[in-house]
Amino acid sequence: EAEAKAEAEAKAEAEAKAEAKAKRLADEKVKQEEAAKRAREVEETRAKEAESAKAEVKVVEKAPAPEAPAFSVPDLPKVSVPAFSAPKFDMPKMDAPTPKIDAPKFEAPKFDAPKFEAPKIPKFDAPASPYTALPEKFAIPAAGVTAGSASSQEDEFLEPQEVRDEKARNAKIEYKRLDQEAKAIENQAREARTLANNQKKEAAIAKGEACKTRLGGKILCVRGFGIGY
Predict the structure, then answer these.
(1) With a threshold of 0.90, does the pTM exceed it?
(2) Which residue, among 191, 181, 190, has the nearest Cα to 124 in the 3D structure?
(3) Quick one: CA dihedral 168, 173, 178, 184, positive or negative?
(4) CA torsion sign, 40 to 45 to 50 to 52?
(5) Per-residue pLDDT tens for 36-92?
(6) How far apart are CA 29 and CA 209, in angstroms?
(7) 211 with 217: CB under 8 angstroms?
(8) 6, 100, 164, 212: least buried by Cβ within 10 Å?
């Protein structure tokens, strides 16, 4: 019984949906027919108006143009104007004195720009190198001296290999130390220059603000001596 009841309800629901769909389709069809009917009426009305306009144009073209009435301009009477001469008179000459005006002279006040001295860069004395200086003069071997004898003479002036290696090693170490110190000093100098440039910009901004209300404004900025900017 439950299944039969469910089937009946489903069938009734399907029939209701089908009826609603059919009704919707019928309504749409009626609306489409009415729209088509209105469109046909509008087209017929426009066609009638176009035909009536054409008929009116044809009637206007066939109607004869009215003839303009002929008229003649009457002769105007001649009027003689009497001659008139204006009386002559001489204007009196007037020499007006021209006043001399001396413009006041304006001299801009003289002022000396403040002098700025760049800070002196500190001097750094590099420590003396530990290696021994080479002799300035070398004896030139006399003519006839063989290569073997020359090399033997040079070997007499040379220090032992271990001593020369130690000097080269110490010189390299000293160079690295001095290079690191120089780089540190250069970094400090760059940082100091950056701070100085920033302070210069701030000083220029502060000067502009201070000169706003002075004579000459920011351009001339007339101020007394020893004011400090």
Answers:
(1) no
(2) 181
(3) positive
(4) positive
(5) 999 999 999 999 998 888 877 665 555 555 565 555 655 655 655 555 555 565 655
(6) 84
(7) yes
(8) 100
